[in-house]
């Protein structure tokens, strides 16, 4: 929530100050803020001494303008900055100062707007910057188009800054639209202008000679200096990366210009020489994978969650633990475990009885669970709050015999562990992968983050019987630290793919921790085309293929489906997940997945997030994907 407003304000300030800088040789300039609301832009610019040659005009509905005028007059520090130039009460003018004019006019009534601005002193012949922050989208398209065209045709030297939503039809976009519909605030622009290119064409066709568009991930990455990004990222405990990046991929900033003495491109400064970290990506194929609901919505409310972990503890038996979601009519950290059992070809869900042996269940998120035998699993790490220390390890003990498993009588015993290996477990968003070394079984615990370290790049070999960490030599170049990556066992080693790096940028690298004679060795797995950087995905290995499922990436024009990497040739292929049979937007982040190789079935469990702008959005129930076609044909 805080970051979202920050990046919006930063984008507008960036463009405004660039306009003032580029026009500083002009005797006079002006800024016209459309639908200004209670924005404080004028006061910030005035306080910085940037308005010596510039007049700021603000327009909003008459009742809003009157409220704002009264607010300004009632605060000495604000009214002294505005001063009094007279003219208040004349026409639409609610407040008038030497360099500030506040007008009450309906923007959709263009003739009245033009008349009011003329009476307030707006000059059509000097450089003018138009600002519209989430304003035009609330107008009928014919009226907003007319306003954009009027601005281009009526002013000889003009620039325009637009900040709005985009990508309405992907899963997060559907959640966004639903949010605004519930507020009775329909976003009119989205149907006709859903993306970068349609918005750019809109302005060029309405009389503007140049136009540039960036989504807010691109803006934050390339237009905010690195030291400022680090400052913002360190301001408060933060662990909502997926929602932050998804929201930023659904908002854009657009700049357009016409008649200016030199090109105005504030979104592409001279230092802008990097490519956006989304890549051309794998080969996309027309074949899609159909998602089918498992048909147990009424009994699977406890699976409407994210940040949980699901583990196949026996054939056709999946245990899901932790996370945040909907339980007993509330949104909270999940108190109950859930079990999924496949019986006669159908998945059924049930609750699990927990027996606590000196350890009360803490409702952790972003932990791992590794099944070490047919009656024992090890839970490692996780967190409650991102400002709290990470949690340690727990044994999970369950019935050894499959006949003892029942949807109504499944019991898991929790056993607290205090071991010398605790430092290895004090993390979350990490991975824990089983490896063998010299005949002994270990968990390779890698990466993640903690309350004090936003990204970890270390690893530990945890002996599964002694629960102590063993030093095993690892050779080769060390991968960049990461969290929210995927890890799979392959050929006695570990495949690490993607993740979020120290700069909060998705990573596209794939590494193989290969077992050699007396050690392990890091090797880079080359993929072609290069893998699109991503994180918050899940992964599975089938034969010589690595399957990456969902996740978050910065390619805002599409959402990740399933990427298949041939581990022999390096060929990378994308498959779209068809959701036409689902009744809700399928969230492919913060989910868990279990792959059943015999049936070539992939089960997606949970997923979604808690966006403080648009609310909690969770997958309604478990989803099954049949991968037979792509694993046979690939």
Automatic annotation (TrEMBL):
Pathway: tRNA modification; wybutosine-tRNA(Phe) biosynthesis
Protein family per UniProt: Belongs to the methyltransferase superfamily. LCMT family.
Keyword Repressor attached: no
Molecular function terms from GO: tRNA methyltransferase activity
The encoding gene: Lcmt2
Database matches in InterPro entries: Gal_Oxase/kelch_b-propeller, Kelch-typ_b-propeller, Ppm1/Ppm2/Tcmp, SAM-dependent_MTases_sf
UniProt name for this protein: tRNA wybutosine-synthesizing protein 4
Reaction(s) catalysed by this chain's protein: 7-[(3S)-(3-amino-3-methoxycarbonyl)propyl]wyosine(37) in tRNA(Phe) + S-adenosyl-L-methionine + CO2 = wybutosine(37) in tRNA(Phe) + S-adenosyl-L-homocysteine + 2 H(+); 7-[(3S)-3-amino-3-carboxypropyl]wyosine(37) in tRNA(Phe) + S-adenosyl-L-methionine = 7-[(3S)-(3-amino-3-methoxycarbonyl)propyl]wyosine(37) in tRNA(Phe) + S-adenosyl-L-homocysteine
Short name of any one Pfam family annotated for the protein: Beta-prop_TYW4
Keywords: Methyltransferase, S-adenosyl-L-methionine, Transferase, tRNA processing
Species of origin: Nothocercus nigrocapillus
Gene3D superfamilies the UniProt entry points to: Kelch-type beta propeller, Vaccinia Virus protein VP39
EC number(s) stated in the UniProt entry for this protein: 2.1.1.290, 2.3.1.231
Enzyme class of the recorded protein, top EC level: transferase
PANTHER family listed in its UniProt record: TRNA WYBUTOSINE-SYNTHESIZING PROTEIN 4 (PTHR46529)
GO BP: tRNA methylation; wybutosine biosynthetic process
């Amino acid at each position: 929530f805080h970051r979202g407003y920050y990046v919006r304000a930063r984008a507008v300030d960036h463009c405004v100050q660039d306009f003032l800088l580029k026009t500083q040789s002009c005797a006079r300039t002006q800024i016209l803020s459309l639908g200004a609301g209670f924005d404080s832009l004028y006061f910030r610019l005035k306080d910085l001494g940037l308005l010596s040659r510039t007049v700021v005009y603000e327009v909003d509905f008459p009742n809003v303008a009157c409220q704002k005028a009264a607010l300004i007059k009632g605060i000495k520090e604000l009214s002294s900055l505005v001063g009094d130039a007279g003219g208040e009460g004349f026409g639409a003018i609610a407040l008038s100062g030497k360099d500030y004019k506040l007008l009450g006019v309906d923007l959709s009534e263009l003739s009245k707007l033009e008349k009011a601005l003329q009476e307030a002193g707006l000059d059509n012949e000097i450089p003018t910057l138009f600002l519209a922050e989430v304003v035009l989208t609330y107008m009928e398209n014919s009226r907003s188009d007319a306003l954009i065209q009027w601005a281009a045709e009526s002013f000889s030297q003009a620039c325009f800054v637009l900040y709005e939503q985009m990508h309405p039809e992907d899963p997060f976009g559907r959640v966004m639209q639903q949010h605004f519909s519930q507020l009775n605030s329909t976003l009119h622009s989205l149907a006709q202008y859903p993306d970068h290119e349609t918005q750019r064409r809109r302005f060029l066709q309405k009389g503007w000679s140049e136009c540039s568009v960036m989504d807010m991930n691109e803006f934050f990455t390339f237009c905010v200096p690195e030291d400022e990004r680090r400052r913002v990222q360190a301001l408060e405990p933060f662990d909502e990366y997926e929602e932050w990046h998804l929201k930023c991929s659904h908002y854009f900033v657009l700049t357009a210009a016409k008649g200016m003495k030199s090109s105005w491109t504030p979104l592409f400064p001279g230092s802008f020489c990097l490519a956006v970290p989304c890549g051309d990506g794998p080969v996309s194929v027309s074949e899609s994978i159909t998602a089918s609901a498992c048909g147990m919505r009424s009994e699977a409310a406890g699976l409407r969650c994210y940040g949980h972990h699901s583990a196949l503890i026996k054939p056709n038996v999946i245990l899901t633990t932790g996370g945040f979601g909907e339980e007993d009519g509330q949104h909270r950290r999940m108190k109950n475990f859930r079990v999924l059992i496949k019986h006669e070809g159908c998945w059924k869900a049930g609750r699990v009885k927990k027996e606590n042996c000196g350890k009360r269940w803490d409702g952790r998120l972003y932990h791992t669970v590794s099944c070490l035998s047919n009656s024992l699993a090890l839970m490692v790490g996780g967190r409650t709050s991102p400002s709290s220390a990470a949690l340690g390890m727990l044994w999970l003990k369950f019935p050894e015999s499959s006949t003892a498993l029942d949807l109504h009588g499944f019991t898991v015993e929790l056993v607290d562990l205090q071991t010398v290996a605790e430092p290895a477990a004090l993390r979350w968003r990490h991975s824990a992968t089983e490896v063998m070394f010299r005949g002994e079984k270990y968990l390779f615990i890698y990466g993640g983050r903690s309350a004090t370290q936003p990204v970890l790049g270390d690893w530990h070999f945890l002996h599964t019987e002694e629960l102590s960490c063993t030093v095993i030599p690892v050779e080769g170049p060390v991968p960049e630290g990461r969290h929210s990556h995927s890890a799979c066992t392959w050929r006695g080693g570990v495949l690490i793919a993607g993740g979020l790096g120290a700069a909060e940028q998705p990573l596209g690298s794939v590494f193989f921790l290969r077992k050699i004679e007396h050690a392990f060795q890091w090797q880079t797995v080359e993929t072609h085309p290069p893998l699109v950087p991503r994180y918050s995905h899940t992964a599975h290995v089938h034969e010589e293929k690595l399957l990456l499922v969902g996740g978050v990436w910065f390619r805002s024009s599409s959402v990740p489906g399933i990427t298949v990497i041939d581990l022999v040739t390096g060929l990378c292929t994308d498959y779209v997940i068809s959701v036409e049979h689902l009744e809700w937007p399928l969230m492919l982040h913060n989910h868990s997945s279990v792959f059943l190789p015999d049936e070539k079935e992939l089960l997606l469990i949970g997923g979604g997030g808690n966006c403080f702008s648009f609310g909690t959005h969770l997958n309604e129930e478990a989803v099954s994907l049949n991968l037979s076609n792509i694993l046979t044909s690939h």
